[in-house]
Amino acid sequence: MKNEKIYVTKPSLPPLEEFIPSLEAIWNNRVLTNGGPFHQQLEQELCNHLGVKHISLFSNATVALLTALQALRVTGEVITTPYSFVATSHSLLWNGLKPVFVDIDPVTLNVDPAKIEAAITQQTTAIMPVHCYGHPCDVDAIQKIADLYNLKVIYDAAHSFGVEDERGSILNHGDLSILSFHATKVFNTFEGGAIICPDVKTKTRIDQLKNFGYVDEVTVVAPGTNGKMSEFNAALGLLQLKYIKLALERRGLIDGAYRERLRGVAGIECLDRSGETVSNFSYFPILVRPDYPISRDGLYERLKENSIHPRRYFYPLISSFSMYRSLPSSQPSNLPVATEAAQQVLCLPIYPDMEMEIVDKVCALIASLSTGAFTASRDI
């Protein structure tokens, strides 16, 4: 591993020779997009694999978020979390909606249902929670609030491919769920995304919206966008799906190794995964607590000095960016748990072909810093 740069996530790539027949098929059938055979096959195989009724594939998850809000005709205010990637709230601004941020739970780092009800106004029409790091939200509490106030629930489930609770896929909760198939995700199509929906009528509307609003070549029924997944990306997804079980098993081993090696390191806390019946181990976040000898940012810099490139994920909070800072709900006093988490979180490298030697060295460095025994090395 000498001089190798180690990043938080790396794309899991199947053997190139297995992809050649798909490229030849795309070339021969001359269908590049607009719901070609690979696109249709991937939708069906994902439904089967994930245990969901309907999937609409997209060019990326951000366009899927934008379209989901359009599909449900969301207006006014949407309650969401400040502890996420900016695409979550950007999708609201692009639809002319007002984000209302509420604080997160200190254990799961998901939106705290206890904070949602107090944020509801006459303008509130929806809730957009995030299954942070793939850990399920308190879906029952959120749905109870939504039912009481007649609100839509759209889950940003970008991290949540294959995650299940005791009732099956967490993607079946809410009105819609959105997945990301970006190259850094556990299942990827290089770039891509999807909307999971419960019925054919909703899927039909979503499919029209992602194709400019076309019903047929002479009929447009809505001001849609171009969100279609290409045949190339769909074919890659079908190949990735063949290896997903192995990839998740490998991630699970790495997750377990991290937990074992970091157990007992003062000031380092690993997030609890007890709410997941089936996990995808999409990230490995740690919290660098005040009793660790150096700050989170100090640890971040020390790891980078040793060619390890973790990510402060999510930092800064969405609510601190200029386009959100003036919102009343963005005040740090309204978001104490999220503010603290953003200052302490650090996601360590995890990807299927990561060698245990790397895990050992990352953990040894973190442990040595906790005791003052650290000696700089560029061999990690």
From TrEMBL:
InterPro entries in the record, alphabetically? DegT/StrS_aminotransferase, PyrdxlP-dep_Trfase, PyrdxlP-dep_Trfase_major
- Domain of life according to the entry: Bacteria
What Pfam families does its record include? DegT_DnrJ_EryC1
Task: Give residue numbers for the modification (N6-(pyridoxal phosphate)lysine).
Answer: K185
Q: Which SUPFAM superfamilies match?
A: PLP-dependent transferases (SSF53383)
Does the keyword section mention Transferase?
yes
Q: Which UniProt keywords apply?
A: Aminotransferase, Pyridoxal phosphate, Transferase
Q: Name one GO biological process term.
A: polysaccharide biosynthetic process
Record GO terms (molecular function) = pyridoxal phosphate binding; transaminase activity
What is the active site of this protein?
Answer: K185 (proton acceptor)
Q: Which CDD domains match?
A: AHBA_syn
Please indicate if the UniProt record lists Metal-binding as a keyword. no
Q: Which family does it belong to?
A: Belongs to the DegT/DnrJ/EryC1 family.
**This chain belongs to which protein, by name?**
DegT/DnrJ/EryC1/StrS family aminotransferase
Organism this protein belongs to: Rhizobium leguminosarum
